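Fold this complex.
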Amino acid sequence: MKKDIQLGLNAAIVAVEALTPKILTVTSAETGDALPFGPFDPVRHRTLEIGLRSWVEAQTSLTLGYVEQLYTFGDRGRHARVDDKGPHIMSVGYLALARPPERTDGTADRTEVGWRDWYAYFPWEDWRKGRPAMIDEAIGPRLEKWSALSPEDARPLRRPERVQLAFGHDNAPWDEERVLDRFELLYEAGLVEEARRDGRESAGLWDPAPNLGIAMRFDHRRILATAISRLRAKLKYRPVVFELMPETFTLTELQHTVEAISGRHLHKQNFRRLVEQGRLVEPAGGESVSTGGRPAALYRFRREVMGERPAPGLRLGGRS
Amino acid sequence: MKKDIQLGLNAAIVAVEALTPKILTVTSAETGDALPFGPFDPVRHRTLEIGLRSWVEAQTSLTLGYVEQLYTFGDRGRHARVDDKGPHIMSVGYLALARPPERTDGTADRTEVGWRDWYAYFPWEDWRKGRPAMIDEAIGPRLEKWSALSPEDARPLRRPERVQLAFGHDNAPWDEERVLDRFELLYEAGLVEEARRDGRESAGLWDPAPNLGIAMRFDHRRILATAISRLRAKLKYRPVVFELMPETFTLTELQHTVEAISGRHLHKQNFRRLVEQGRLVEPAGGESVSTGGRPAALYRFRREVMGERPAPGLRLGGRS
DNA sequence: TCAAAAGTGTTATCCTTACACCCATGT
DNA sequence: ACATGGGTGTAAGGATAACACTTTTGA
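Structure:
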C-alpha cells in the first residue's frame, strides 16, 4: 500500500556583507529561527528549482542567482513528534547565493524575515581569529566523555576517530569542509538543543553546554550545515564567490568574502597569486573610495575562465 | 491547491570486474534498458536510504555497501508523454557500490536483470586506449553544426564554449568528470535517442549519428551519467575504490579498477607512489596466483587512513 | 631464452608556503 | 610624519610528470 507524500522545499540563502556571511532566516516568537520553507506544487511548476525560485521571489522579493540542490530528506520524525497520521512530508534542501542584501522586507504575520550571521548558529566554525576557545573548553571535553561511553560503536568510524577527524584534536588538521560531520557529532552526543528536543537526550549525555549556537526549527540547522559544507568545498573548484560579489570589487574585499565563507584566515600574497594565476579577474579601472589607507584597484570577474579551464576556483591550500 | 506526489527511487549500482566497470540494469524487450527502480513507502521505511536498500536486496539478492544520494528530479515530462492526470512521480537517484558480481538472478517476469559495461551507454567516455575516434568523427562535427545554429544561446555558457569545455576540442584538456555535461549537450543537440523520443527533435538537428551509446528508459541514462561523474570525482578525495575491491588485491588490480572507472590510462609508478604516499594500503602477505608473469604481492585497504587524513583518496593529477 | 607482468631510481618542473619589505593615501 | 591598508620579490620545500631500466616468474 503506497502512501502519498507532500514535498517541501527548504532554501539556505547566503549573502556576504562586509565581513560576515549571512543567511536568510524566518523568525517567530513561538517556533524560533527557521529557514525559508515552501511547498512544492507539481501542477504549477515544472521543476523543483522553478518552484523554489517562484516562492522565494514572492515571499522575499529577492531574485536568486546561483541555486544548487543539496539533499533530499525523507526521515520520518523530522517533524518532531511523529503521529504517523497526516500526510508524509519530505523536503529537498537547496543552497542559493545572493548579492549583498539591501533590506529584505518580511512577510506579514508575526514572523520576521532577516539576514543573520551564520556563525551565530555555528560559532565553532569561525577560525578567522584563530582556533575558537570553545572547542577546547566546551566541546572537546564533552565529546571525549561521549566518545568514551561506547568507543566501539562504529558507524562510519569509531567514535574517537570521528571526533578527532571532525574537530582536529591532537594536532590533526582542521578541515573546514566538515561542517556537517561536526554538527552531526554534536547532535548525536546530545550537545545541541535540537537533540534534546527530538527526544535523544538519553542517547548522549545531556550535559548542558553553554551556547553551542542558536538552535533552529526541525532539522534546518542540519540543512544549513550541509549548505556551508558544500559552499566551502565548491569555492575551491568553481568560481562561485563571484555570485556573492558586486560587479566590481577590490582584491581585499574578495579575500574577505572568501575568508568569511571558509572561516579561515588567508595569506595575502598567496591569495592574490591564486586569483591572478587562475586568471579569475581583470582590472575594471578606477579605484575604490579608500577606507583609511591607500586606495585599492577595482577588478571584475572574468567570465571567460569558465570556458577556458576545467575547474576554475580558488584552490586554497592546507593552512594559512 | 497542493497535489500529492509519489516518490520513486532509482539506483545506479556499480561493480568493477577485471577491466570493465559494470552497472546493474533491468532489460525487457518492450522498454529496453533501465536502472532498477522501486517506489518509496514512507510507512514501511524510516528513511529513503533504508527504503532503497530494502527493495534492492529483495529484488536482486545483493547486499549494498556504500550508498550515496545523487539528485532528486521533479521534472514534469520525465515520463515521456505527459497527461497531467495520474499521480505525480518524482524520483531520487542513488549511487551504490558493490563487490564484483558472482551472478545476479533476475526477477521473474519477462525482464532480465544483469550487469553491463557502462561504456556501452557512454562509448565516448572510455579513453583508456586513447581518444576515442568517434569523438572527432561522429560527435565533433555534429556538435559544431548545432553550436553554429545559435551560438549566442547562453545557458550557463554559450554553445561553442560548452562544447569545447565538455569535449576538449582545440587542445582544451579532457576533464573525465564532466560526464553529465557531455550527455546533456548530446541530448540538447538531439544526438541521442532519448532526445528524439522525448520530442525534442526540432530543438537540435536530428542527424542520426551512428551508435552514440545504448539508450535507456526515461531519464535513466542521465542518472547514470550523474553517477559516473560523482564516482569519478569522489575517487580523488575519498577511498571509495576499495568498496569495489575484494579483501586482498594486487596493486595492478587496483590500478585497473581506477582506470576502468576514470576511463583514463594511468602511469604505473606514479600511481603506485600515490597509493604508497597516501598510505592507503598495507601488505596482506602472500602473492597472487600469477597470470602469466611474475607473481604480485597482495595488499589490503588500510581502514585507519579514514581516521588519519582529512581527504584520503587518489589525487590523480592532470593527464597520463 | 623469451614473453609477460611486477617492481624500482631518478630528474626537471611546477606549485605551495612562508618569509619580509615597499608604496600610496588621509589626517 | 605616521597610521592604515594596498601591493610586491623571492627562495625553500614538496608534490608531479615523465624518463627508462631491473626482476621474477611460466612456457
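The longest strand of chain A covers residues 5-17.
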